[in-house]
Write a structure and sequence with these properties.
399 residues; alpha/beta; four-stranded parallel β-sheet; 15 strands
């Protein structure tokens, strides 16, 4: 009797609802085809010799479908880091590649499934180029991977942000406040866009559309003239300030990407400063990553896991499974990580949002002449100061 075939799987990057559903899909499909499955711990760090892993079985993966997080653990910093900023792709150290090759040889892996976003899949591509049998599974709540319609975890994050908007709506209306909700997404505005539409936001600010503070203030004033004394604003963490500055909580380094965040608080402060209105900011942060996956994400993640095993079975390495609605297909990992999947400002969903009166902060004034005249008549010392707006100073963007 020959050596039993063996597949490895790891989950890299930030945690995400649906990771365990992928693991379960891989295990169930692999066992059906006669593979043993090794789950590497803490992402790529567990892959380098000496490898850290556990054998995944039907017994120890029972019940994980609905669980958030990943039973294998993950990391988005450390030695295996291949991205900085929006486009920069870094090389892996030769000794790390050799350590991974040693683990492959010692464990006699027939293939490795790498579940991750653009950073983790860039690492996967580097390992494939080094001659290792790698397949990829797209994972990101940001939905910023190109070549796939949606990645699992995205709609779970949108559901969290939408629920937050539903809750903010009632408190904003009760106190006649402007509420700013800051959501994740890094350099893509998908979460802000979908949650903003689903949650009834009035203003959506995303990295892909340049905005001006006077246009946001004009929307708030427009609503107040209509008798709507509150406004809901959703802003993506990667939406740059007018002038192009990116707000960061922590600068990037060779071991980790920059940590974005803080634009929501700045925006709320600016609205209060220039309109003399009460504004508050809520930052969802890691709440968007936590909890179990939605039904759509469970189904999508399970399919990804099953089809990733199929790619290994067919020897189609260097490929990433993707969702080409309604089918699961595959593209090369190289093509998938070539550029970020970002919102098209001219897409049908943006056009629909604008048709309903949502503001993206890019259009000055409104067709209502009364509102436009009110804006032009307000003196600089009044509640609203359209020109110039006194933005605080920020350090130069080091992305």
């Amino acid at each position: 009797m020959g050596q039993r075939r063996r597949i490895g799987i790891l989950t890299g990057g930030g945690d995400c609802p649906g990771l365990n559903a992928v693991i379960r899909g891989v295990v169930k499909t692999s066992l059906h085809l006669g593979y043993e499955v090794l789950g590497f711990l803490k992402g790529f760090e567990g892959l380098a010799a000496p490898a850290k892993y556990k054998v995944l079985t039907a017994e120890n993966t029972t019940g994980i479908l609905v669980q958030g997080g990943t039973i294998l653990g993950s990391t988005n910093k450390g030695r295996f880091n291949a991205t900085r900023g929006e486009d920069e792709r870094m090389q892996l150290a030769p000794d790390l590649i050799e350590a991974v090759k040693k683990s492959f040889d010692e464990l006699q892996l027939d293939g490795l499934i790498c579940v991750g976003g653009d950073g983790s899949l860039t690492i996967a591509q580097r390992l494939f180029e080094a001659g290792l049998p790698i397949v990829g599974v797209p994972k990101t709540i940001d939905n910023d991977l190109s070549c796939t319609d949606f990645s699992f975890g995205f709609f779970s994050a949108v559901a969290c942000a939408t629920d937050a908007l539903d809750r903010l709506h009632s408190t904003a209306a009760s106190h006649e406040r402007t509420m700013v909700l800051e959501v994740m997404g890094r350099h893509a505005g998908w979460i802000a866009l979908y949650a903003g539409i689903a949650g009834g936001a009035d203003v959506i600010l995303i990295p892909e559309i340049d905005w001006k503070l006077e246009n946001v203030c004009a929307k708030i004033l427009h609503r107040r003239e209509m008798g709507k004394m509150f406004t809901l604003i959703v802003v993506a963490e990667g939406a740059k300030l007018p002038g192009g500055k990116l707000v960061k909580q922590e600068a990037g380094s060779e071991l980790k990407q920059a940590r974005l965040g803080g634009i929501g608080t700045i925006l709320a402060d600016l609205i209060q400063q220039h309109m003399n209105l009460e504004a508050r900011c809520v930052v969802l942060g890691h709440l968007q990553r936590g909890g179990g996956p939605t039904t759509f994400d469970r189904a999508l993640a399970t399919q990804y896991g099953a089809h990733a095993v199929r790619l290994i079975e067919e020897g189609r390495f260097g490929q990433m499974v993707c969702y080409d609605a309604p089918e699961i297909r595959s593209v090369t990992i190289e093509e998938a990580v070539k550029k970020l999947g970002r919102v098209d400002p001219n897409s049908s969903i943006v056009i629909a949002a604008k048709a309903m009166g949502l503001s993206f902060g890019d259009i000055p004034g409104y067709s209502n002449p009364f509102v436009n005249s009110r804006i032009s008549e307000l003196p600089a010392s009044s509640k609203y100061n359209p020109s110039p707006l006194l933005l605080p100073k920020f350090e130069e963007d080091d992305m």
